[in-house]
Amino acid sequence: MNPFHAIQGAMRRALSRKRMIGLYWLFHTLCAALAAVPLMGFIVPHLARSRYGEELLRQFDFMWITELLGITRDSPLTVSGAAAAAAACLAMLGSLFLAGGAVKLIVFEAVPYSPSEFWEGCGRCFWRLLRLMLYSLLFFGAVLLVDGLLNKGARKLWGEGMVEEPLVLALWFRQTLMVLLLGFVVTAMDFSKVRLVADDSRRSLRAAFGSVRFVWAHMRFFFPAWLVLGAIWLLGTWLYVQVSKRIDAVTMPSILFLIVLQQVYVVFRIALRMLSWGTAAEFEQALRPKPEEPAPVMAAVSTEPPSFEASEAEDFSI
Amino acid sequence: MIMRYLLPLLFSAGLCSGQFATPIASYDIKAILDTKTHTIAGSEVLTWVNDSPDTVPALQFHLYMNAFRNSQSTFFKESGGQLRGDKFKGDEWGWVKVNSMKIEGGADLTGAIKFIAPDDGNTEDRTVIEVTLPQPVKPHESLRIAIDFTTKTPMVFARTGFHGDFYLGGQWFPKIGVWETAGFRYSSRGAWNCHQFHANSEFFANFGDYRVELTVPSHMVVGATGEQVRRAENTLNNTTTYTFRQDSVTDFAWTVQPNYIREERMFAADQETTPEEIAAVAKLHNIPVQDVRLSDVKMIAMVQPEHREQIERHFTSLRTALKWFGLWYGHYPYKTITVVDPPYGAGGAGGMEYPTFITAGTSWRLPKRALTLEMVTVHEFGHQFWMQLVANNEFEESWLDEGFNTYSTGKVLDKAFGPSTLPVKLYDLDLWSFLKLPRFTQESVDRTAYLSGPVEDDLVRRSWEYYSSASYGLNSYMRTGVTLRTLEGLLGAGTMARVMRAYHQRWRFRHPTSRDFQKVVNEVSGRNMDWFFDQFVFGNRLLDYAVGSVSSVRQRTPMGAFEKDGSMNVVTRKDAEEIDVKNEGNKSFKQQYLCTVKIQRRGDAVAPVEAVIHFSDGSTEKRTWDGSYRWVKYTFLRNAAVDWVQIDPERKYQLDVSYANNGWQSKYNIALSTHWTGNFLFWFQNLLLWMTAIA
Predict the structure, then answer these.
(1) Suppose A6 and one of A282, B33, B290, B321 were both cysteines; which one would form an S-S bond, judging by CB atoms 3.0 to 4.6 Å apart?
(2) Residue ranges of the alpha helices (H) in B308-359?
(3) Whole-number mean pLDDT of chain A?
(4) Bigger pLDDT: A317 vs A154
(5) Is A95 within 8 Å of chain B by CB?
(6) Residue B41 has pLDDT above 90, yes or no
């Protein structure tokens, strides 16, 4: 299996679950609204009937933000911060919950989508995925630690150096390494989810470490696939930025068009997430050795009737 | 014996003579830099002129470098060892030691030196000394004093010091204070103005002529205040002695580093300005064209090799500043201007101004539209006008230099460079421009900063007496910028331009106060603006006008009993309603509205303000309110409802803390609500998607 075949298979799996993508979008939108609406609660009364609002719509000016904070005495920050934190918690737990159903339906391609199948997966896998997420913090923490140590090392090595360029190049190197390492951990954790669901296993810790080992051992498959997925994300993002930059969002039609475009981009990102699970499922199917089924035991059949002893009699009774 | 020179009568006025200033404190300095010990062995001969009618019994000197002597200095106690984002590290402290002090050919004053702390009584502070003279200096006499000193430069974190093989020599030699006679600035009696070195303060000095011989290792590239007039190799010890001269300045600074790229360009005045520009300025100020013409200046840039591709940006910034500051306030009178780009790790030396010598600062591969380099270069150059030529006391009235310069710099940058971005990069990609994030003018930057902090102080205070460093910064820079723009709004751009030029010209090579500026404002504008200064300069009033409420009530047919022809005629509710319904169907009927607009003064500042009330039939009413009470009500009986109301339509009052509540419109802005809700939703969606990538 080459990475393109894997992604092709993943696309097939993801596209057959469009309703699931819709559900994901709805969930993220509701969580985001939980954070956005309180913020708008400050902004709308402040500007909706102010002529300054028209001006800001045409040309945004940062001084309005400090003006708002000055007048409302930091309350937007407090309220919106609390709302954003609540939204983040909800999104995190909700995503974990939904991942169970989503990964199940992506892994078991033959199972037709139905709400009951989906929610069954959500409920069944929630705790094991929660544990997996907590274990994954170890790996993410390790990546951050590597980054911190590299940064410290670079600064120590550079000491009182008088040129900025090497430090910036070191930063770029660090950033690249961080992206690669984070990509590796995310890929491994996606694979762990698939593995947990495919095996219907509860051994999250074993799945986490096993997946890291497995993905590392099969980097020649996973890394190109990860690069392709990254390139798709970059392309989609670039397209979004280029198109959105050209929209002069001051009239209602153009604003609505921008909103639609933004939501298309969000759906694109969700689909990409499904695609990465689908890729992991393809690799899981193709690369992971399956436990061998026990071969049938061929034994000579005696013509003599067996002698019945107590223990054997118990066996027969099973 | 004291050498006394009876000075010509022209000194007595203490004013500038011709193009340059009367020298009061002139220095002839010889300094040898030892790069192994980071010390400077120096000797100076100070010629000090007592241009006052007072008899001066003692002298006071600044020993600025002692601010870095230990953690007990006033500077260190106030700053906590960090300034402008840079922190003091390691144990490379700095100090200056006066080895000997003698009146030339006369008495040895070394034994008479005593440390004083006129501002805070900190006995551990060694930044000011007083020397009692054996014989007082009589009015209009001068005195020559020879001082031997040793300066140990600190590891740079606050303007001066060394970093690797880079040196920035600022505040490095013993410098006499300013004798203020009664009537000079705020003085009611003759006394020295010689403040300790504080964390939130800069400097104050008389004008003088400087001649400095600087001996440094030969491989060093050197830059300094003034013109280099001599260069002599000392083959015996592999050093080179550079001689610099500059008349009519208040300080002297220098820099050395072996790998500077030193480039020169000429500011050719005739090529940089057009006859039309000159004529426009001459017309505005009603002065002869020759008084507007600028002079040629040699521009010197000393840039780090890794910033090689930004050399021309330094020169472009200098060119722009020389042109517009020169045209607006008067020509730059010196022959050179040197801009220094300190190396990485020596950022504390950047963004500083000395006469004819400024330090800027940039970063590797700075995006083109991020104008931080231009901003800092133009700003530091601007100090040649506000601090160097118009030499206010920076210790006591920092708004007169930092704030005036913020105002001027903003105008130059907005005019010449347009809106800027922030240097936000992803690898080498200018992320700010790529994402097309909003650009901002300096005017907007200043007001953003002004609104970011509460007003805790009057604009004018002694720099170490502000509530906090942040308050010092906010008041001295951005709030002043906004205050002067508000003044410009009230006076008009033309009058403000005349005020600024008149103030600059009148106080060039002199030492003005805030009250002197106030006098110029009143005089040039022909208006009494004391109310403005009392509230916004010498006070801390908050300005906030707001549209309180707006209503347009449709006039119904009156009901009830009305006297008609001597008898009571009753219009019943039903009759009135029927008439109203009939009127509604009648296209020729002109419906009347009782329109009420209430405007509030929510701040404690009282200032006259204009309001425009626009009606849906296109008609407009203008009102001017003196703001004396907390609110005012305007009522109109019109055939149209109020469409919109705008207070201060020309945005004269940039000091107003809310533009949003200055305007009201009848139409609910659904586009804005939709657009921003959509944006916030999108940003949060993406944020959550990133966050839940681990879920």
Answers:
(1) A282
(2) 311-329
(3) 87
(4) A154
(5) yes
(6) yes
- Inter-chain touch A46–B660, beta carbons under 8 Å: yes
User: A88: nearest CA in chain B?
Assistant: B688
Nearest CA in chain A to B441: A61
Residue among A50, A237, A274 with most chain B CBs within 10 A, to mutate: A50
Please judge whether B676 and A241 are an interchain contact, meaning their C-beta atoms are less than 8 angstroms apart: no
Identify the CATH number of the domain in which residue B665 sits. 2.60.40
Residue B448 lies in a domain: no
> Which residues on A lie below 8 Å from B304 (Cβ)?
162-163
> Average of pLDDT values for A223-228?
92
Position B651 in a domain: yes
Contact between B672 and A162 using a beta-carbon 8 Å cutoff: no
Distance from CA of A76 to the nearest CA of B (A): 14
pLDDT of residue A300: 60
Decide if B637 touches A, using CB distance below 8 A: no
What is the C-alpha to C-alpha distance for residues B490 and B651, in angstroms, rounded to an integer?
10
B695 and A CB contact within 8 Å: yes
Q: Are B345 and A189 in contact (CB < 8 Å)?
A: no
3-state secondary structure of A20: helix
Average pLDDT, chain B: 94
Given this model, what pLDDT does residue A74 score?
61
User: Of A106-120, A149-163, A184-198, B37-51, which one has max mean pLDDT?
Assistant: B37-51
Which tokens is A259 given? 């909103």
> Residue A2's pLDDT is what?
81
Chain B CB within 8 Å of residue A43 CB? yes
Choose among B454, B676, B692: nearest Cβ to A43: B676
Taking alpha carbons only, the member of A205, A63, A120 closest to residue B450 is A63
Residue from the list A129, A164, A262 with its beta carbon closest to the beta carbon of B682: A262
Residue range(s) defining the domain that contains residue B145:
1-257
| Within-domain flag for B395 | no
Q: What angle do CA B552, B556, B560 make, to 5 degrees?
A: 135
* B662-684 average pLDDT score: 93
Residue B485 CA to residue A112 CA, distance in Å, equals 69
Q: Report the pLDDT averaged over residues B59-70.
A: 97
Structure tokens at A225: 């696939």
User: Does any domain span residue B536?
Assistant: no
Does A317 have pLDDT greater than 70?
A: no
Is B551 within 8 Å of chain A by CB?
A: no
The per-residue pLDDT for B29 is 98
pLDDT surpassing 70 at residue B16: no
Last residue of a domain, one of B206, B232, B257: B257
Residue B393's SS3 state is coil
A208 touches chain B (CB under 8 A): no
In 3D space, the residue among B49, B54, B60 whose CA is nearest the CA of residue B190 turns out to be B54
Give the pair of three-digit tokens for residue B629.
């009470």
The answer to whether residue B260 scores a pLDDT higher than 60 is yes
**pLDDT level of residue A113 (50, 70, 90 thresholds):** confident
Dist. CA B144–CA B5, nearest whole Å? 10
Into how many domains does chain B fold?
2
CB B440 within 8 A of CB A56: no
Give the separation between CA B226 and CA B334, rounded to whole angstroms. Answer: 8
Give the residue among A7, A10, A17, A3 at the shortest CA–CA distance from A267: A17
| Residue that has been written with the tokens 């425009």 in this structure | B612
Give a three-class secondary structure readout of B241-287.
Answer: EEEEEEEEECCCCEEEECCCEEEEEEECHHHHCCHHHHHHHHHHHCC
Q: What is the dihedral sign for C-alpha A233, A237, A243, A249?
A: positive
Distance from CA of A5 to the nearest CA of B (A): 24
Q: Which residues of B touch A52 (CB under 8 A)?
A: 659-660, 662-663
Pairing of strands B357-359, B336-340: parallel
ipTM score for this prediction = 0.88
